[in-house]
Design goal:
The protein is an alpha/beta fold. It has helices spanning 47-57, 73-85, 101-108, 124-131, 136-148, 164-167, 170-175, 195-201, 205-218, 237-245, 287-296, 298-304, 328-335, 347-352, and strands at 13-16, 61-64, 89-94, 113-118, 153-159, 181-188, 225-228, 259-262, 267-269, 278-281. 35% of the residues lie in helices and 14% in strands.
Length: 353
């Protein structure tokens, strides 16, 4: 039925956390260290060497996260410069509160850099419920800078109970007025260390499915594309084809298959949400050592092999298992069983729509 092992001979995407420190203290940040001063020390001190090591591994795209990348411009600028020299594209995720005119000039000079700004609503009272930050005014000012300088950008929004209604109404209307917004990337709220708040903001599968339907209906009226994140929502070839038309990425979770995560101390993980998925270190292992581990690590097998879904797991006979693969993080956090059906799976809704 499913291929036993699906992965590339080398990873091509690296999610990079050069440090975890952030100027905001968002309630629902899934990065456990982002709201703490513990383990926030940046050990990746040489941006040029770091970029060269990424190139040596065959990385083509870096997703640069944090913490807030613009808290350390010296490192950030040098790293981006070297990545551009190494022909490595960068998708930089920022909360949009620190970007100034000097940053805008730097961003505009880079051909392989894309900026992704995270905000959940343009209504401060709504945004505060998930972000816990006085962010909206500063982000509006940042967007004006991007628009004034004709710089294309993306916006990432976390769908939750607080902003669910405005996502399909006022938020879309405001976004559609922006001339250089390329893409709205919507992700579903994920478990964080604040379990009570997560449960209060968590939306049901039915609510998320209805959100997708409304966005589908409105997409043609938008001046930007809409991307719905999660590889845990694909169910059969027919639905995959319809979702492809909706600019949705139709593949199983990329973690440990063609994407890696690198933490501030150089540890390489299969998944940035599972701290126990470390299998190498970019500063310790040679490329040959890394390749041995990439091809033989027992840690990576559970991200790749569908044989783990035995007959006792509901997913085992699903005809979309090969392109879905559930989500080890969600299953571990919400089901207390990593090899199980994703609690965010929408298969029943797609079948009955």
């Amino acid at each position: 039925m499913c291929k036993k092992n699906i992965y590339m001979h080398l990873p091509i995407i690296a999610t990079v956390y050069p440090f975890y420190t952030c100027n905001l203290k968002c309630h629902c940040c899934f990065t456990e260290y982002a709201t703490s001063d513990v383990n926030s020390t940046r050990i990746v001190t040489n941006p040029v060497e770091f970029s060269n090591r990424l190139k040596n591994l065959g990385i083509k795209v870096v997703e640069l996260l944090g913490g807030e990348p613009f808290l350390n411009r010296e490192f950030l600028y040098r790293f981006i410069d070297k990545c551009e020299e190494n022909n490595i594209g960068i998708i930089l995720s920022t909360n949009g509160t620190l970007i100034n005119n000097h940053d805008i000039k730097f961003i505009k000079s880079k051909s392989l850099l894309k900026i992704q700004i995270s905000i959940d609503s343009f209504h401060e009272s709504i945004n505060m419920q998930s972000r816990n930050a006085d962010q909206v005014t500063k982000v509006r000012n940042t967007l004006r800078l991007f628009e004034k300088n004709n710089i294309c950008y993306q916006i990432t929004t976390v769908a939750n109970k607080a902003n669910l209604k405005c996502l399909t109404s006022t938020f879309l209307v405001e976004l559609n007025k922006l001339s250089f917004l390329e893409r709205l990337h919507i992700i579903r709220i994920l478990p964080s260390s604040n379990e009570l708040l997560f449960e209060n903001l968590r939306i049901s599968n039915k609510e998320y499915f209805q959100l997708i339907q409304v966005l589908q209906q409105n997409e043609d009226e938008m001046n930007f594309t809409i991307g719905i994140d999660s590889s845990y929502e694909f169910h059969n070839q027919e639905e995959v084809e319809s979702l492809i038309q909706f600019k949705k990425i139709a593949h199983s979770c990329e973690a440990g298959r063609y994407q890696i995560t690198i933490s501030p101390n150089g540890d390489i993980l299969a998944c940035d949400m599972l701290s126990d998925s470390v299998f190498s270190n970019i500063f310790i292992d040679s490329k040959d050592d890394f390749l041995v581990k990439w091809n033989s690590s027992d840690i990576l097998k559970k991200f790749r092999e569908r044989d783990f879904f035995n007959s006792e797991v509901e997913c085992s006979n699903c005809n979309a298992l090969e392109i879905c693969g559930s989500c080890l993080f969600l299953c571990e956090k919400l089901n207390n069983e990593p090899i199980s059906k994703s609690p965010y799976c929408l298969i029943d809704f797609w079948k009955n729509k």
